[in-house]
What we know:
By secondary structure, this protein is an all-alpha fold. The protein has one domain: Helicase, Ruva Protein, domain 3 (Orthogonal Bundle). It has helices spanning about 5-10, 15, 20-50, 60-95, 100-105, 115-120, 125-145, 155-165.
Amino acid sequence: xxxxxxxxxxxxxxxxxxxxxxxxxxxxxxxxxxxxxxxxxxxxxxxxxxxxxxxxxxxxxxxxxxxxxxxxxxxxxxxxxxxxxxxxxxxxxxxxxxxxxxxxxxxxxxxxxxxxxxxxxxxxxxxxxxxxxxxxxxxxxxxxxxxxxxxxxxxxxxxxxxxxxxxxx
Length: 169
């Protein structure tokens, strides 16, 4: 069977275009973190939705509501920055962003830590959610600092494989 017939019968997948360990691990990490961030954003929406609070007038002090609002905004912003970073990585993996585009728009925004005075006024479940969002941001920040491995885009890698396959003729 000729090389042309082999190339024509085998449609390369993304994983064929890059090394097995590099694509599987990195892509899997991004997908796992993305799922975690989505679940965390849903939990944050439920906890910080002030309209859903069944509070009687005067049940919460103004300082408590202010602390809840401020930390809710910080937490949801933190999670949205993580989601944006992960969506950019997913787009890069699928070939929708070039490395140059990723370098331009793909940096993770710096985290704004929670205020200990505000945290002291919140219930344990809310503090736990905030801490989890900070841990998630820190994990993604470590990945962002490490930077993506420089490699060809999937389409370019596939083109290179085809050129190498026919280079020997």
